[in-house]
Amino acid sequence: MKTKILVVDDELSMREFISILLEREGYEVLTAADADTALERLASSAIDLVISDVQMPGLNGLELLARIRASSPETAVLLITAYSTAEQAVEAMKLGAYDYLAKPFKVEEIKVLVRNALEKRDLQRENLQLKEKAQACEGFGSLLGISPRMRELFGILRKVADSPSTVLILGESGTGKELAARAIHDNSSRQGRPFVAVNCGAIPESLIESELFGHAKGAFTGAVGERAGLFEQAHGGTLFLDEIGELPLAMQTRLLRVLQEREVRRVGGSATRKVDVRVVAASNRNLSEQVQEGSFREDLYYRINVVQVIMPPLRERIEDIPLLVDHLSRKHGCLEARGRAITSDALKTLMTYPFPGNVRELENIVERSMVLNRSQITPESLPPHVRGGAKRFDLQSTIEIPDGGIALEPALEELEKRYLLKALEKSSGIKKRAAELLGMSFRSFRYKLAKYGLAGEPDDP
Q1: 99 and 191 in one domain?
Q2: Which residue in 98, 168, 364, 441 is a FRET match for 374, CA 20 to 30 A apart?
Q3: Is there a contact between 53 and 8 (Cβ–Cβ < 8 Å)?
Q4: How far apart are CA 79 and CA 58, in angstroms?
Q5: Digit-coded pLDDT (tens) for 70-96
Q6: Same-domain status, 162 and 294
């Protein structure tokens, strides 16, 4: 649908001149010789922009402007006059005119003003729609979304929040698993009590037991005093065990006992201490597969998997991206210009990008873009790999099934083995870097190497 512009001027030659000029630019143009006729046009048709002379018989341009602002506030107004004064200009801007143009004017000048006025009108309209969506959206804690997947998730989180059951949150990295855990805690009867979060994959294996359960004085070198573990610190509240699949098997056994008995014994100590803790666990890996592989205890899996919550990846809820961009741009406080935080072209680019890093990646992109262009996110301020689109791995070009069929499990193992070796080759044998190339934790990468007999030399320091 063409943009519709109404030209109001009592001079026929001026109406015709502006009409021809704008029609050549691709706009649909209506005309009126006076304000009364203009108001009739506005009442019968949706007008995007009004260009009006100020000096006219009957109602003048300023009075017409006031009427338009009262009846159609979304319609942009541009005033033109041959008798420009500073007082008139000030009054016009106060009444809500986009701009004030004095005759005679240059053709390019009015073209630019029209484009800018329409762009501003579009931004204001889209901003209003975004705010309406934000007000209508359902949320839970710091999680935001209007998509069906998120609405369903919010409903589940509300139901489990005030139950004593252990919750297992599954989802890719960056989907907001910790935000979901905090939301569960903040909407439960434990609200106001401690919320303690720990990333099980980030703690050195030698320190995990002490970190979770505490230690007695002299329990090991450096234990100069007693220290309460995270279970004790979370007493009365919630303990969030992120990346629980990274726990060593020996520690999984101790954790299972604590969850069953609701008591802990510090490393090097003899006394047990009762703990009242609601556990919320999370993983970005398939724990049931780890159970089959033998790297995760089956009994612990069933103990923590009482209520399962799955966080949807961002690529499966792209309708949430405009809302998230608006929220993240305000969070980072980089906006200096009024209006929308992102241009339409930049938003379209983001909504076609698959976001392997999910909301965390989107936040990094927004922060980076606004550092480079503080007034607004544009396509030019987006990272090159986002502008260029994602390079996806095409399995169709590599898969072949012989006529006699294939044993899937051995084939998948062979493919996995090749990727491990390729990653080691690409990283010059540096295992931590190889794990990063495959999107794996170092501990999982090391397990896979041992599984296929590829461990080789000792692990990297």
Answers
A1: no
A2: 98
A3: yes
A4: 16
A5: 888 888 898 887 765 656 666 777 778
A6: yes
